[in-house]
C-alpha cells in the first residue's frame, strides 16, 4: 500500500533480520514494509552484523533506514537509540518492540534464578524501558503507536516453558496499562501474539519434520512465515488502527482456539 507510512518515523527493535537474501524476521520485514511505504526506519538490535547488513541493503534500494545498537535491558542504550532517532528525523511515530529470548525448557524447580531473570529482563524490563523512552518524543509528535510483540504463549502454556510464557503474559497486561495511561496523548499501545513462525529466531529448532508436526496442530494447516506476522504488526502500527489500543491481536493460525486432534 504505497504511502501508508508517508512521513512516519519508526524505531524497530529486534528488526536486524531485514535482508531479503536471507530468512526474514517478522520485525525485519515490518521495517522493510514501513520504509517501502514512505516511512523512515531506524532498526535497533543487539546483532550489529545483521542489522548493519540489512540497513546497507535497504539503502542500496533507495529506502530511508539507519541502524543503532540496542541492548533492550540497558537504560542508556534506549536513551541513545531514541536520541539518535529524534536527532535524525525530529520526530518519532512508531515503536515496534520485538526483542526476546526463549527459556531453556526446564521445570520450575530446575530453572535457576539467572535464567529466569534474563528472560524477564529482555522481555519485561525491555518493554518498560522502551515505552518509557519513546512516549515523550511521541507526545511531542502528536501521538504514536507502540506495538509489543508477545506470543500465543501469553494465552496457553506448554510443558517447561515457564519463564517465556510468564514474560509474554506480562507484556499483554503492561500494554493495557500503558494504553490507558497514554490514551490522552494519542499514543496507542497494542500487542501482537504470534503463533509458531519460521524465523531466524526459530529456524534452528524448526526442521522440516518438526514443522510438519506443528502444522498438524494448526487449524490453518501450516507454520507461519514472517509475512503472516508482519501484516498484523503493520496494521497496528498504521493509522488504519487509529481507534485500536490496549488490544491483543492473536496471529496463531487458530491454535489457541482449538482443543486439538481427538484421535
Description:
This protein is 41% helix and 14% strand. The chain is an alpha/beta fold. It has one domain: 3-Layer(aba) Sandwich (Rossmann fold). A 7-stranded parallel beta sheet has the order 3-2-1-4-5-6-7, sandwiched between helices. α1 crosses α7, α3 packs parallel to α4 and α4 runs parallel beside α5. It is globular, with a radius of gyration of 18 Å. The model has no long low-confidence stretch (mean pLDDT 94).
SSE topology:
Blueprint: E1 9-13, H1 26-36, E2 40-45, H2 48-60, E3 65-69, H3 75-89, E4 94-97, H4 113-140, E5 144-149, H5 162-182, E6 187-194, H6 208-215, H7 226-237, E7 248-251
Parallel strand pairs: 1-2, 1-4, 2-3, 4-5, 5-6, 6-7
Q: What proportion strand? A: 5-15%
- The percent range for helix content is 40-55%
CATH architecture: 3-Layer(aba) Sandwich
Mean pLDDT: 94
Index terms:
single chain, 7 helices
Provide a brief overview of the structure.
The chain has helices at residues 26-36, 48-60, 75-89, 113-140, 162-182, 208-215, 226-237; strands spanning 9-13, 40-45, 65-69, 94-97, 144-149, 187-194, 248-251. It is α/β, with parallel strands linked by helices and 263 residues long.
Amino acid at each position: 500500500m504505497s504511502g501508508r507510512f508517508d512521513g512516519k518515523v519508526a524505531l524497530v527493535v529486534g528488526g536486524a533480520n531485514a535482508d531479503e537474501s536471507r530468512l526474514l524476521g517478522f520485525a525485519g520485514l515490518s521495517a522493510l514494509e514501513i520504509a517501502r511505504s514512505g516511512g523512515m526506519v531506524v532498526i535497533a538490535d543487539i546483532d550489529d552484523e545483521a542489522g548493519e547488513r540489512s540497513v546497507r541493503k535497504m539503502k542500496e534500494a533507495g529506502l530511508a533506514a539507519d541502524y543503532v545498537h540496542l541492548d533492550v535491558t540497558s537504560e542508556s542504550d534506549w536513551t541513545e537509540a531514541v536520541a539518535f532517532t529524534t536527532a535524525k528525523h525530529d520526530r518519532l511515530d512508531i515503536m515496534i518492540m520485538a526483542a526476546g529470548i526463549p527459556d531453556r525448557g526446564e521445570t520450575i524447580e530446575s530453572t535457576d534464578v539467572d535464567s529466569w531473570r534474563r528472560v524477564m529482563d529482555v522481555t519485561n524490563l525491555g518493554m518498560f524501558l522502551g515505552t518509557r523512552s519513546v512516549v515523550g518524543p511521541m507526545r511531542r509528535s502528536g501521538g504514536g503507536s507502540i506495538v509489543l510483540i508477545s506470543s500465543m504463549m501469553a494465552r496457553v502454556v506448554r510443558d517447561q516453558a515457564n519463564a517465556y510464557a510468564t514474560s509474554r503474559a506480562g507484556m499483554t497486561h503492561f500494554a493495557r496499562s500503558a494504553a490507558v495511561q497514554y490514551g490522552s496523548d494519542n499514543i496507542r499501545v497494542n500487542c501482537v501474539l504470534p503463533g509458531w513462525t519460521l524465523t531466524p529466531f526459530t529456524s534452528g529448532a524448526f526442521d522440516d519434520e518438526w514443522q510438519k508436526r506443528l502444522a498438524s496442530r494448526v487449524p490453518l494447516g501450516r507454520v507461519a512465515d514472517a509475512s503472516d506476522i508482519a501484516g498484523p504488526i503493520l496494521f497496528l502500527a498504521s493509522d488504519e488502527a487509529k481507534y485500536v489500543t490496549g488490544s491483543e491481536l492473536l496471529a496463531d493460525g487458530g491454535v489457541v482456539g482449538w482443543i486439538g486432534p481427538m484421535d
